[in-house]
Amino acid sequence: MFALDLIIKKRDGGKLNREEIKYFVDGYTKGEIPDYQASAFLMAVFFNGMDTDETLWLTEAMLHSGDMIDLSCIPGIKVDKHSTGGVGDKTTLVIAPIVASCGVPVAKMSGRGLGHTGGTIDKLESIPGFRTGLSPEEFISNVKDIGIAVTGQTGNLAPADKKLYALRDVTGTVENLSLIAASIMSKKLASGSDAIVLDVKTGSGAFMKTVEKAEKLARLMVDIGRGAGKRTVALITDMDRPLGNNIGNALEVSEAVDILNGKGPDDLREVSIELATNMLFVAGKGDNEFCRTLAVEAIEKRTALNKLMEMVERQGGDPKAIENTSRLPSAQFKAEWRAEKSGYIEKMHAEKLGIASMILGAGRKDKDDVIDPSAGIELVKKPSDKVEAGETIAILHTSDENRISGAVSVLKTAISVSSNPVQRQPLILGKVQ
Ligand code: URA
120 in ligand 1 pocket by Cβ < 6 Å? Predict the structure, then answer.
């Protein structure tokens, strides 16, 4: 078999078989197929697509390119959740403790943020002392002992994805449904949980800009999960505006804690409860209505909050920073951004707000940039809220005053005020199972 033949076959619209896809993925991972051929291959896939079989085989080849975590020594149905990424998306910090406090083990591997999207690992690292680099042994023993662990990637999971994703990033081939689905699902399947809930975001702050595309991606990923013998459900949720009021690492931890204290913004609470309900459902805890009651009670009775504190302590963090979030890193500079005219908040472009937050220091433009854990944006108003001229719309947080003007110029293009009342958009846009 030759890489060139496979590139030509895909270029001409042919269907690759399982062996051919495995040959390509293995060859590229081992360095036997060079970047220039892999780039041409990715572009051929980008233009001609892959069907469901090819996507399954691609996922399978990527999944078997490295280690796989074996969680079978942990009793119970282990459940995982994955979000396709967004702005202000701190749901993992809310739902992992909810689900674990209901007796369902959560062994979660999360990533760091890049560009306008945040990452759970960066958020957790804003908790003083919190360790996100658990070894596979510690990861498993923590889940066994307290039912929850959240870590950065442990072990050499799906190395093919790491290499291919980096190449896609610089060859304009990220936005292809099969490539995205195989990338996400190879990592999820390698991390060993029995059941998976996917949160596929759609809107201005998401990869999938339309509900139709989000549904297609969700269908593909659910089919891959099912094909691998895992109970898999996907929710399509809105990312046309940021989720919750806070964007930025410590600010988001604080808001997640608010939800677990029975407070916090309604949108974050609604999406978190829906995701937690579905995680409990795929873990076999009962029907949807019962699972929702369990999730709500875990908040009301503070069992989820206690579980978060237990996890923080176990991973070396200071649980007092959860008990009292004023102990989290706080920015030296805060600037209020005010409305120029009265009306109703019409649009809050999620991607642009993510970029403004990144400029303040909360995110990375390049993967080696250092994060300011205290930086970010606190939204005082959200879409459809009434605002008077001169009222504060957002508070900018940063440790570097020089960053404020750059963030403000992005904010100006991200938020618009209309003189007419604005309808609130639904948050949960669909479910694929
Ligand atoms: N997230 C991933 O892990 N992979 C993709 O291809 C896109 C988003």
Answer: no
